[in-house]
User: Fold these one by one.
Assistant:
Number 1:
Amino acid sequence: MNDHKVHKIGVLTSGGDAPGMNAATRAIVRTATYYGLDIIGFMKGYYGLVHNEFIELNNRSVSNTIQRGGTFLRSARCQEFRTEEGRKQAARNLEQLGVDTLLVIGGDGSLRGAHLLTEVWQGQVIGLPGTIDNDLAGTDYTIGFFTALDTALDAIDKLRDTADAIDRVFIVEVMGRMAGFIAQGVGIGGGAEEIIVPEYAFDIDTISEHIELAKNKGKVSFIMVLAEGAYEGGAMVLSQVLTEKTGIACRPCVLGYIQRGGSPAALDRILATKLGAYSVEAALQGVSGVMVGLINKELSLTPLEKTWTEKKPLDAYLEKIQPILAQ
């Protein structure tokens, strides 16, 4: 299948960790080995690329990793890579190591870095969508998103028990500084009465009225899901504002980094494995400057720049029916 001559692949994980990154790395390593390619893993993301920190990888290196959360290649910030000289140093390291193709697993910041690398290095660069936020265009779902949903849903289910017992309003803040995919998903899955996301405008007075109306109807619990970037000050400030407006006790619950951790869900393992294998096959076909993804169950290739410049929409139908379901 090696239509385009590839001899050595490098792989790194960058940005925030996402459950399934290890599964993707495993699939990359085993697929590359199957096709007779050498493969190395750069440690701590772009930091390892600039500072030439790497390990040799083979099939045994990735044994018993598909179920592990986090990333065994680790991730770290790298200020040097933000500079052109830092990227040129990374390019020199790749050339000296004989790497033909670099596979980058990460979110929009990581893929921006991959795109910048193509300006100073002649090798192939291919991205894999690894972020719990699910905010990259060019794929229906990103690696880690399903696990983050399950983790947040588990927390909401537990909070519902407490909300029912003590007649409270809980505001659950989930990750999603610029995108509301997690908030919408867990809000619908957890039966939330309100979902607040950056993509849709909302009115504090209207939400206050909804809380009061729900209580007047006899609802004993009220769960609101808030994407972290949708309200200045987050759940802490919003809970204070709504308590003052309604006279009903509103309590914040910030889930934070717990959403990133844990063993990847089945769907994340499958998605990561599929995209990991496909990224190697795409490299063998000679493509570069793209991200692999899955759209309508079909494997896809999207130019790196398009993954963050094109706005990925939330599910409009879920947005439409949420108020109906929350009555």
Number 2:
Amino acid sequence: MLKIEHTRNVRKNILRIAEGLSLSKEHMRLAETVALFHDIGRFPQYSRYKTFRDAISLSHGLLGKKTLIKEGVLERLPEDERELILKAVNFHGAFSIPTVFDGDTVFFLKMVRDADKVDIFRVFLEYYDSPPEEQASATAFGVPDTPEYSKIMLTNLYNREVASYMNIRTENDFKLMKLSWIYALYFDESVRLLQERGLIEKLISKLPQTDEIKTAMDVLRQYITERLG
């Protein structure tokens, strides 16, 4: 149910981004299709491995691509659309977009990556706000929820860089990494969605309010102000 709701929201997000870019109805339909299928690999992933962590199972993007091919879901589509959707599903969660992809594939990948990140903010805030017995276990990253945080995460935020999963040691590191995603969003509309929904400030409120974290958050807020005017 977590992923069903997530998929619905990513669909809404990508349509909002597409509208902000004044895309044609045909391109909006294609964007919507990419969003609907982007996480289909999560279902075989959880069925087999009981986790949503790619690092200890398999890439959910690759599982999604294989599922779509196996079930013949896209067979009626033109070959160019079919290939674009398969690439977008396969690589939407990659650390970076492969440089060998054509412009259209890169464009739709950017949209779904943004739409995905925007809703992941909501997913984790709901996780943090839920009583322990109601928290979705597959959402947990498996690190201690202690007051500590890593300096490298703050350095990334100071430098307007995206933090790496590899440096996560505590829940606070995980929260800081999510906030650093704002620097990786491709479209202004994506940043605006986070702002409108109050998701950025809600996640900041979950962090220890130390002076160095406050300074890093001021850098982040300044970036958002500059970007959105």
Number 3:
Amino acid sequence: MAAVGLVAALSAPARAADEPPVVHNEIATAERYCAEHGGKLREDPGFPRVLDINGDGGEDWILDFSKFHCANSIPPEPYCGSGGCNLMIFLWKEDSEWTVGFEETVQKYRLVRRGRRLNLQVWIAGNMCGKTDAESCKEEYRFEATKLVRVGGRAR
């Protein structure tokens, strides 16, 4: 029975006690916006999400606003629009410092293993990459310490 509790605890999303201040502030701002606009907050599992994305041994944080819902507010999904939802990735620098490594509106994302590292793949609205609104573009980034470098392209 204790093993079941341990598994549940390890798979539970990280919350306030563990969040670094920069992540906590972003979440608090979103929660405050929801409350001020008469919304009822509901977070799906995975908001926020913590893991070592760049392989430096530190906790990196992902805020996937497609998993942040503010029912009954106007707008009902304040961090999402026709082009997708806001995605923020905070990369650990040192001690108690994190930097925003990625912040963009994306239709979807996934982390893919490339050898021993994870890369970030994002799909963005077509109007952001020279296509029609109905189309989308896929971009891939690799993590290098506290920055992202576009695979086959420019650094972020």
Number 4:
Amino acid sequence: MSNIEHGTQIGVRFIRWGLGLLVFGIFIGFGIIGHYIVGAQYPTGDMFMHNVTLWFACPWTLSVYVVQGGAIGMVIIGTMYLALGRVFPIPADDGNASLWLCIAGLLAVFLTGYVGYFVVDHIWPTFYYSPVTTGKNVWLVAQLLSIVLYWLGVMGVLLNVRRITYQTA
């Protein structure tokens, strides 16, 4: 496989996964709408009302937006690889690890932020709506670690692009 073909292949893979995860991110956004229609599962206390701007009154807001924004980022990365592959030689192993870190990170954000909410709520009921600090911290740290996976993938892309463009410039 030529370098141009590899640049095209990894670019297309980023774009396909990015578009798929974007559709998925929009789909899971319906959960937020359902939450607003149905209302909170538990009574919201005074402490929750002080933090409502942080949470936008729905527990899944962060995970939905990270998946959507990350998916758009993957489409942009894929487009960049398509363009770079036409100008610079791209080694055959470049981009694969970054692609899978981005995919794993965004799927982990969904699992920890969306599905994980119900798991943590089962262990610490009302943790989201009342000040159950341990439950909130466990849930938020899990999401943070998931976002770090995505960030590592994007940093891998940055390092790949720097190496590709500097070695041939």
